[in-house]
Amino acid sequence: MPDFTTESKTATEHYFRPSKSPAKETMDGDGVAGSEQTVVEKAPSGIAAPKQDEDDESRYPAGPQFWLVLVSLCLSVFLVALDQTIIAPALGAITTEYGSTKDIGWYGSAYMLTMTALQPMYGNIYRLFNIKLTFLGAIALFELGSLVTAVAPTSVAFIVGRAIAGLGTAGIFSGSMVILSYTMPLRRRPAMFGVFGGLWGVSSVVGPLLGGAFTDKVTWRWCFYINLPIGGIAMLAIFWFLRISRPDNPDGESYMARILQLDLMGAAILIPAIIMIIGLLVGAGVAAIAFTGIETWQQDKSLLPPQFFKKRNVLLAMLFALFVGAYFFPMVYYLALYFQAVQGDTAIEAGIKLLPFLISVVISSIICGALITAFGYYNPVILFEAAILTAGAGLITTFWLDTPFSQWFGYQVLAGLGTGVLFQAGIIVVQNMLPLELIPQATACVQFFQSFGGAIFIALAQTVFQNGLIDNLKRDAPEIDPIIILNSGASDIRKILVQMGREDIVEAVLGAYTLGLRNTYYVSAAAAGCIFLISWGFEWKRIQKTGEDKDKEAAAVVVERNATSDGDATQVDKSSA
């Protein structure tokens, strides 16, 4: 193994020093010529060359180009966020049309599973290939899935459409975070994350209202047709205005060489492992063990690089994201069912009743993003948010048939205020801990765990809901066959019982339904408690790093790698002797 002792002594002095090539015309990542380009000298093999100072304003776009890029990203985030909440008030009508409630869990899980399975792969694709084209391809996949879902004649076709849409969604939000890292300095990103969170919240507010309006006034299928024009506008804006000054292939590698770096072997095991988890736990476990072995062997070229899990804050950020997904998605899905099935609201009324929760998410996200940017520390904000969230999620588990306005409104506000910054927290942490070149993979990993938590816990929530509903129906309304309720639409329970001439057991059946829903709220509340506990484990690190801090960290990385290299060389010498 080569000795890099000399290089380690001058790592921060040499590899952070950019060199100018004023007379040489260069090409940016999208094939746009420029008269001058800042070039960072390549580090020796085995050392990741640190990039230019991430707080150097001159590296980033400015003026109209900057704002057009941000508008494009915001439109893309809006597209994904709208899709994840617009379906909630439409679930009653969808289950009624397809004649079953047993597939509700799959409507969410199919989407989340494919999104989860592709997240790590997108991280590597963004790192190795053209960011802009990858991002546009992800939106195109999402559009295709939305079209299939909108025209689905059966429940199975609907699930397939949601799965295809998930393949695209996997690359949209993480891609937005990656593009943002090449568009804005590190110290300004938390505020933009707050805007993204606020935009997500605005979409969350608009989504249920649109979903309810489409369902009641036109058809639930327009909940997915609406994605087509929005996605088309986003693709045009990104195609025309996005420019990233990063070479697609700085090392001059062939396409095949870069494809081989995608860790296809790991992906071939991870994707079926994720999909098998819900129905084939043994197969998923075996695949997960094999995947862990391959990732350890691949090291930095793997889908989930082991080095990420050796850093305390990065590891905790992944776990944090897992439980954020586990809390949020079951909560939104089954809150909408409570209002429609138990309180007898229409789809649009259920959407309106979700507003206290979703508007609170918007307000909290914007305020918390601004606070983190202003003070430079994320720990106090995350701890405070997690505490409020745990209290709000716990109170929602008390919902009953006659829960008054003051309670269902107030408890949602409390939970929403605690949710605001949590979606961005994991990304803020990893972007503060890792160098720019690792951000695409790290961002995708955070999104992977968040999606994974949503996929698994939506399925878990569906299971505990069905089991709770069946058990409580057998106890409180033994004269009714539970299959009748399971195979009816959530908004048709009262009508079916009236048609059967069993108005006398309506309250008992709705009570059993509510107890089944409570089980799903227990799942979300437990996940919120885990979020609170994990929040205490984050190291306190200031976001606005100085150049000196970054130099010290870069030198430490080089020294650590040299020590590893020297250790390997010593072992080889001993074995040779």
TrEMBL record:
InterPro entries: MFS, MFS_dom, MFS_trans_sf. It is found in: Membrane. Residues 1-58 are annotated as: Disordered. It holds the Pfam family MFS_1. CDD domains: MFS_Azr1_MDR_like. Gene3D superfamilies: MFS general substrate transporter like domains, Multidrug resistance protein D. The keyword Cytoplasm does not apply. It comes from the Eukaryota. Residues 10-27 have a biased composition (Basic and acidic residues). One of its GO terms (molecular function) is transmembrane transporter activity. It is a multi-pass membrane protein. GO terms for cellular component: plasma membrane. The chain crosses the membrane at residues 66-92, 134-152, 164-184, 190-210, 222-244, 264-294, 314-334, 354-375, 382-401, 413-434, 446-465, 520-538. Residues 69-543 form the Major facilitator superfamily (MFS) profile domain. Keywords: Membrane, Transmembrane, Transmembrane helix, Transport. This is Major facilitator superfamily domain-containing protein. The lineage of its organism: Eukaryota, Fungi, Dikarya, Ascomycota, Pezizomycotina.
